[in-house]
# Entry
Amino acid sequence: MHVERLTGVLGARVHVGPLQELSVDELAELRALACEHEVIILPGQSLTPLEQVDFSRRLGPAADSPFIEPSPDHPEVIKVLKEASDGNAFNFGGAWHSDFSFQTTPPSFTVLHALDIPPYGGDTLWSSMTAAYRALSPQHQEQLAPLSAVHTARDAYSPKMQPLHSGLSSMNIVCDESANNTEIHPLITTHAETGKKVLFYNRAYVRDLLGMADEIEKLRLMDWLHLHTTDAKFTVRHKWSVGDVAIWDNRSTQHNALNDYAGFRRELHRTTVRGERPVA
# Structure
């Protein structure tokens, strides 16, 4: 495998043969690269939905994907699709988030395969939450360590959000009351495979912090956490090409799909790999 780093913080382009032909040792090496670089781009791939499912299963069992109706022929595949006719409709994934962090066991990896890409726009950004943690002063790290975050999908997939998602003509996103459920995770987590400390925060799903009595200070801290974890110095931006496969580690990153390609079609296929419960 030939590895090219994309920034000094996170991201790498990995040139490798067809993913469906990787040996056990090559797959282990690729997984280690995904954990080390947090997001890896594999150009020039050509995967059928079934081949993508098989590859994802080699990384681990499939994760549950609530609210989003999968491909009818491949229940583990989500078509991330915006038609040219959808215009300025909301872009799926178009806010800083870590996939399904509101679950008890959020996904470990996401695999995204580019099939139809606009001539410009539709880039994806990732930020490193390990780099965001390392940038904190020792005193700040100590102050945040006892806190827990309340994750919920209420402002993404509760019934009040249905009109937003219904603007996508080719994705069926069904909002329901279960989105109001909450899950508590430590604010500072330890990565299950690398042992690195992670500032496990994203504004899309974190709606409260436990361990702070002053409500005003809490809201200020949450605003600051969003700005800090998405600071440009912790990010990488990828311009998609047809055939690209991105694999990223949801345990140590958050991401944002840009919605700047109105009038063009964009289709990618997504699979997710089940993770483990985040631990302090």
